[in-house]
Design a protein that fits this description.
- This protein is α/β, with parallel strands linked by helices.
- The protein contains 16 helices and 9 strands.
- It has 3 domains: 148 residues, 3-Layer(aba) Sandwich (Rossmann fold); 100 residues, no CATH class; 155 residues.
- Strands 5-4-1-6-7-9 form a 6-stranded mixed β-sheet. Strands 3-2-8 form a 3-stranded mixed β-sheet, covered by helices on one side.
- The two termini are 57 Å apart.
- Helix 5 links the parallel strand 6 and strand 7.
C-alpha cells in the first residue's frame, strides 16, 4: 500500500489523531497514516516553499519517504502539471491512501480528479482518502483531532457511473460491484447492523439488465418490478452511509413504466403496454436487435389477446406458431402465392386493415432477420456506413410501427385492448 501526502506551509503542532478506535500523536499527519495502515511507501508532494518550510519535519518523522516536486499551481498550466505528476506516482493496480490535509488552494480538487482518473485508467484502489487538519480538534478543548474519512465522496463518482451505466446502457454489473464493495468495507470495519436488502436488490438490477440485453421481456419486466418495489429498502440502507446517493438511486424509478410481474390472471392489455414500454426503452438505448426481437413476439401476443380464448395459453408454442403462420400466410397471399393456412387464418384475414398489419409485420420481421444474419450475405454490400445508418433509422421507427399495429387492432372493435399505447 502506498501513501500519497501533500506537504503544506501551515504551522505544524503536536496533535493526537483519533481514527476510529486508534490514536497516534505526531506533528505530521502522514506518520499517523502509516500507524493506522500498513503502508509500504510514502510519497510527499512538495512545492519549493513547502520544501523549505515544512519538508524537513516530514523527512525527520518519515525518513524513507520519497519527495516529489510539484509547481505552485498558480495557473491552469501549473494545475495540469500537478495532475500529471500525481498520476505518474501510481502504477497499475496499486492500493493507495491519499492524505489531502495540506492541499493548498485548488490542489484538493486536482487530487480528487486524479483519483477518479486513476481508478478508471490504472484500476487503482483508493483504500482511503483522509483529512487530518488541526482545526478539527475536539470540542472539549483538547488537542485531539478526529480524522475525516472522505472516501465516500470518491464513491459518489463511482455510484454516478454505476447508475448511469445501468439506466443508459443496461449494464447492472457495475452497480452490483458497488454494493459488493460496500458490504466488504462494512464487514472490514465491523459496522453494526450491516445492510441486508442492498445485495439482493443489486442482484435484481443485474438480472434486469441481462434480461433486457438477452431479449427476455417477461424476466425483464419482473426484475424491474422487484427493483422498484425494493428501492425504498435499498435507499434506507444507503441513507446510513452516503445520504447524497438517495436522490441518485431514486432515478431508477424510470423503470416503473415496464415494471410488472408475470400476469397470473392471464395475458391482458395492461401487461402488453408494459412490454411495449420495455421495447421503447430498448430502442432508446440503441439496442435495436433486442428491440425488434421482442417486438415481433409482442405483435404475436397482441393478436392472441385480440382473438380471445387463449389468455392462459398465450405462451404455448403451438398457439404462437399458429398465429405466426396466419400472419406469415397473409404475407404470402399479398405476394400472390399459395400458402398453408392456419387455424387463425380466416379470423386474421377477416380483420379490417389486415393488409396494413401484415405490412408492419413484414417490415419488423425483415429487420429482425437482417440483424440476426449480421450482414453475412453472399455479396457484401457497399457503403456500409450508409447501411448502418439505415438500420438505426429503421430501429427507431419500429416504435411508431408498433403503435400503429396496436391502434389498428384497437379500432377493429376489439374490446380486450385498452386505449392505444
Amino acid at each position: 500500500m502506498k501513501c500519497i501526502s501533500i506537504v503544506g506551509t501551515d504551522p505544524l503542532y503536536p496533535i493526537e489523531y483519533r481514527y476510529g478506535k486508534e490514536r497516534f500523536t505526531t506533528t505530521v499527519f502522514p506518520e499517523a497514516v502509516c500507524a493506522f495502515y500498513q503502508v509500504d511507501e510514502v510519497v510527499l508532494l512538495t512545492t519549493d516553499r513547502a520544501c523549505t518550510v515544512n519538508y524537513p519535519f516530514y523527512a525527520e518523522k518519515i525518513p524513507d519517504a520519497r519527495p516529489v516536486w510539484i509547481p505552485d499551481g498558480k495557473d491552469e498550466a501549473g494545475m495540469w502539471q500537478i495532475f500529471e505528476i500525481v498520476c505518474a506516482q501510481v502504477t497499475e493496480g496499486e492500493e493507495i491512501v491519499f492524505d489531502i490535509t495540506q492541499g493548498f488552494r485548488t490542489l484538493s480538487l486536482v487530487a480528487f480528479m486524479a483519483i477518479a482518473y486513476l481508478k478508471e485508467i490504472k484500476q487503482v484502489t483508493f483504500a482511503r482518502v483522509l483529512y487530518g487538519g488541526y482545526h478539527l480538534r475536539s470540542d472539549d478543548g483538547s488537542d485531539i483531532v478526529d480524522v475525516l474519512d472522505l472516501t465516500g465522496f470518491i464513491d459518489i463518482l463511482d455510484w454516478i457511473s454505476a447508475v448511469h451505466s445501468f439506466l443508459h446502457h443496461a449494464d447492472g454489473s457495475y452497480l452490483q460491484e458497488m454494493v459488493s464493495s460496500i458490504h466488504s468495507r462494512m464487514n472490514q470495519d465491523q459496522v453494526p447492523r450491516p445492510p441486508r436488502a442492498l445485495a439482493p436488490w443489486a442482484l435484481q438490477a443485474r438480472s434486469f439488465a441481462s434480461a433486457v440485453r438477452l431479449s427476455r421481456p417477461i424476466e425483464a419486466c419482473a426484475s424491474a418490478s422487484r427493483i422498484v418495489q425494493g428501492l425504498k429498502s435499498a435507499a434506507s440502507e444507503v441513507q446510513r452511509f452516503i445520504p447524497a446517493l438517495v436522490p441518485l438511486l431514486d432515478r431508477i424509478r424510470l423503470l416503473e413504466p415496464f415494471a410488472s410481474l408475470y400476469p397470473k390472471e392471464g395475458l391482458n392489455a395492461a401487461y402488453l403496454e408494459k412490454m411495449f414500454c420495455l421495447i421503447r426503452y430498448q430502442v432508446d438505448l440503441g439496442l435495436y436487435q433486442q428491440a425488434v426481437t421482442v417486438a415481433r413476439e409482442w405483435m404475436v401476443s397482441v393478436l392472441i389477446l385480440v382473438h380471445g380464448g387463449y389468455e392462459y395459453e398465450w405462451l404455448k408454442r403451438e398457439v404462437r406458431d399458429a398465429m405466426e403462420q396466419a400472419v406469415g400466410g397473409a404475407l404470402i397471399r399479398v405476394q400472390g402465392s399459395a400458402y398453408e393456412r392456419s387455424v387463425f387464418s380466416d379470423w386474421y384475414e377477416g380483420l379490417s386493415h389486415w393488409e396494413e398489419l401484415t405490412a408492419i409485420w413484414s417490415r419488423i420481421s425483415g429487420l429482425r432477420n437482417d440483424l440476426a444474419h449480421c450482414g453475412m450475405y453472399e455479396e457484401p454490400k457497399k457503403g456500409s456506413s450508409k447501411i448502418i445508418g439505415q438500420i438505426e433509422r429503421q430501429g427507431t421507427e419500429i416504435v411508431g410501427d408498433l403503435e400503429r399495429f396496436y391502434a389498428i387492432c384497437h379500432s377493429s372493435g376489439m374490446t380486450r385492448l385498452q386505449d392505444p399505447v
